Amino acid sequence: MSDPVEPETPETEPTPEADAPDGEVTAEVVGAEAAEDEAVTEEPASEAPAAEEPAAEESAAEEPGPEEAELTEPAVETAPGEEAEPVPVWMQRRWQVTAGIAAVFLMIVAIIGSLLWSLPLNRALEPLSSPVLILVADNGQPIAKRGSYKEAPIDARKLPKAVPDAFVAIEDRRFYKHMGVDPLGIIRAVRANAQAGGVAEGGSTITQQLAKNAFLTNKRSLRRKAQEALIALYLETRLSKDEILSRYLSSVYFGEGAFGLRAASQRYFNKSPEDLSIGEAAMLAGLVKAPSRLAPSVNPDGARERMRVVLNAMVETGAITKAQAARAARSVTIAPGPKKLPTGSYFADWVIPQAREVTAGQYGETIIKTTLDPQLQAQAEKIIRTKLQQDGRMLNVTQAALVAMRPDGRVVAMVGGKDYKESQFNRADGERQPGSSFKLFVYLAALRKGMTPMSPILDAPVQVSGYTPRNHEGKYAGREVPLITAFAGSSNVAAVRLAKEIGPDAIIATARSLGIREEIPKDLTLALGTGPMSLVDLTAAYAAIAAGQAPITPHGLATFTPPVRPRPLGKAELAGMRQMLSSATQRGTGIEAAIPGAFGKTGTTQNYRDALFVGWVGDLVVGVWVGNDNNDAMYGVVGGGLPARIWKEFVSYAVNRDNPKPVAPVEEELPAEEVVADPGADVPLGPDGQPLAQPPAEAVAEPPKDTPADPPF
Fold first, then answer.
1. How far is it, in rounded angstroms, from Cα 380 to Cα 176?
2. Phi then psi dihedrals of residue 401, to 5 deg
3. 623 class by beta-carbon count within 10 Å (0-12 exposed, 13-18 middle, 19+ buried)
4. Is the CB of residue 273 less than 8 Å from the CB of residue 159?
5. What is the pTM of this model?
6. Residues 6+ apart with CB under 8 A from 392
7. Pathway membership of this protein (predicted)?
């Protein structure tokens, strides 16, 4: 009988449990077995014998797996009684930190790459945003030049060999060897500058200069240099050396407003860059260092000295021989430049934005024909200057403005101040209170409401909603007067009463229909012109009455299409308004401006800060303003005084020169049933609006002492 076969046991390393004496089971084993029994109900049974499980668990406990090893803190030896210092998170998860840093780096590289890739490579070849504009008057006479000069791009491969050689020799000798940034060139520049004790040589390559000219500013900073280097490296990967050189030569600045080699060749030698000689190429290459200071037109000696430096550099690089350099230095002739033109004037500054809208994206010089009349402009400047010299000190008037236009809005003269060289601020286009010249809109609104020039209005002291307007010097008719009389005498109280009757909204709507764009007060003070507006816009509104249609858009370009098509004004309102404007000039506050066929209105603001006269004769509409920039009060100057005299002298000159056709009497335009004689038409009025031979007036109560100073009239 054979012995019983004992079950095979796995060959495992002895465990603490195996070494324990028979009958003794450690608490750990009991706990492990209990845990196993519980786990059996939750997990599928293992195919391995149960006897292997404790050994496997112990082995796992002794040798942690890879995942547990990553989560296990490194052992740190500590002295007895001391707690272990916590390990930083970045040391616990090094692979995660490394991956995060790499992701951020790749993201930054991707963003920079996308930005560089989107750069317009042909920007250096595009026209300038502000090309040269030559403004000419209506007779073709040049009056101003503004902007920078740039011609069409050049192709470096089609130039004489000496031309690119000159620029490479003086600006970037290692141009064909580096990749946009030249470390050797930077070291050489640092050494040269240290020896010179200042900036004697630059370290930027031609590619870096192109990057700066096309995409960056001239501001010197480390940030800009870093951007410049980065863009230069990018350009070298996208463009060939010839393409880089072509873009550089097409955009670099050569002084006198000339950008690009083609513009500089035309400006200084009156020839194309394909025809440049060695000496001419060297002179142009020398300008890049200091174009404004070395421009041949302003500093021929400095330009020639710099040319010789470039020729020597060309000899050193082997581009030419010494004999060629000597001959080239003697063969350069600088062409005389074009006649100098003013860069600005009040009219030029005003019309340039209009010209820019129709000339963007063009090479070379663009001639723009304007509406300016040189004779009228010269006469306007002369009259303003003379009147201020004669009366300015005595009346405390330091500035004046004048704008003259045709009824269709063509501006033929503009004076924005006493002297453009002293102050370029255009007072003709600046906003000031118009005073009683705004009453044009009040009375026109009344006519549109069905009133006529003979409709009655009370000319007596009034207080409306706490507002107490006053007539000039406190003079009132003390009775109802026709609208035409109140308008001619510029009665403030009548205008406020009229504004209250028809409402501010109707007046504002009327002003808007005549082209006024500025903000207008919505209370009754608007009747006296308390809302600032420009003299140009105000004069254009009067031009609408002269033209019989509105709105009139003031403009300075000979070729012009109005943004809004004017619409004819009503016959009755037009005839009535013209009748009142004629009355104001022939017998009212504007009598100082009276000439045959004149229409107009005075305006004076509170405390004599502004004085205006606006009106027309024939086909010439003129607005005049006088005052002070610091808003100081003038010495009793009213619209019917100095402004009216300036207006009359200027308009008289134009009438005598042009002999415009006389305007038909306005009464003929009125419907027969509306022609009513003005009872005061045979009584001339003074500048204060009162009859010069006034019969005894009824006693009128004095206005309260706390009323404001004389408001506009």
1. 61
2. -145, 150
3. buried
4. yes
5. 0.72
6. 398
7. Cell wall biogenesis; peptidoglycan biosynthesis
Give the integer Cα–Cα distance in Å for 450 and 66.
99
Terminal-to-terminal C-alpha distance of the chain:
146
Enter the DSSP assignment of 676: -
pLDDT-derived band at 478, boundaries 50, 70, 90: very high
List the structure tokens of 555.
Answer: 């403009």
CB 420 within 8 A of CB 624: no
Segment 409-435, tens digit of pLDDT: 999 999 999 999 999 999 999 999 999
* pLDDT higher than 90, residue 519: yes
| Distance of alpha carbon 41 from alpha carbon 450, whole angstroms | 104
- Considering only 87-101, 235-249, 340-354, which range has the smallest mean pLDDT? 87-101
Comparing 100-114, 375-389, 507-521, 574-588, the range with the smallest average pLDDT is: 100-114
CB atoms within 10 A of CB 657: 12
Tell me the residue ranges of DSSP E strands in 232-311.
258-259
Q: What is the pLDDT of residue 191?
A: 75
What is the reported pLDDT for 128?
66
CA–CA distance, 63 with 325 (Å, rounded to integer): 85
Q: Where does the pLDDT of residue 211 fall: very low under 50, low under 70, confident under 90, or very high at 90 and above?
A: confident
Beta bridge partners of 145: 134
Given a cut of 90, is residue 16 above it in pLDDT?
Answer: no
Picking from 176, 237, 163, the residue whose alpha carbon sits closest to that of residue 206 is: 176
Q: What is the DSSP string of 624-640?
A: EEEE-TT-PPPSS--TT
> How are beta strands 567-568 and 549-550 bridged, if at all?
antiparallel
94 or 157, which is more confident: 157
DSSP state of 169: H
Q: Is it the case that residue 25 has pLDDT exceeding 50? A: no
CA distance 522 to 526: 7
pLDDT value at 51 more than 80: no
C-alpha–C-alpha distance, residues 708 and 713, integer Å:
14
Instruction: Provide the token pair at 141.
Output: 């006479």
Q: Which of 662, 499, 666 is nearest to 572 (CA)?
A: 666
Which residues does residue 457 pair with via DSSP β-bridges, in sequence order?
A: 481
- For the record, the structure tokens of 611 come out as 């004085």
Q: What is the tens place of the pLDDT at every residue in 134-143?
A: 999 999 999 9
Write the DSSP string, 214-249: HHS-S---HHHHHHHHHHHHHHHHHS-HHHHHHHHH
Cα 61 to Cα 57, 69, 149, 373, distances in angstroms: 6, 11, 84, 104
Whether the per-residue pLDDT at 637 is higher than 80: the answer is yes
Q: Is 134 within 8 Å of 341 (Cβ atoms)? A: yes
CA separation for the pair 178, 185 (Å, rounded) = 10
Answer for the pair 634, 608: CB distance below 8 angstroms, yes or no. Answer: yes
How do 132-136 and 365-369 pair as beta strands? parallel
Residue 89 buriedness (CB in 10 A; 0-12 / 13-18 / 19+) = exposed
Scanning the structure block, which residue is given the tokens 């200057």? 385
Rounded-to-integer distance, Cα 594 and Cα 588, Å: 10
Q: Which of 689, 589, 683, 680 is nearest to 641 (CA)?
A: 589
Angstrom distances, CA of residue 593 to CA of 56, 376, 546, 625: 119, 18, 17, 14
Q: Let me know if 311 is exposed, middle or buried by CB neighbors in 10 A (0-12, 13-18, 19+).
A: buried
Taking the C-alpha atoms of residue 193 and residue 590, their distance in angstroms, rounded to an integer, is 72
DSSP code for 180:
S
Q: Region 552-569: what's the mean pLDDT?
A: 95
Q: Which burial class, exposed, middle or buried, applies to 324 when counting CB atoms under 10 A from its CB (0-12, 13-18, 19+)? A: middle
Q: Whole-angstrom Cα distance, residue 697 to residue 677?
A: 22
H/E element, 652: helix 642-658
Angle, alpha carbons 131-278-189 (nearest 5°): 80
Q: Which two tokens stand for residue 290?
A: 């200091």
Return phi, psi of residue 91, to 5°.
Answer: -80, -30
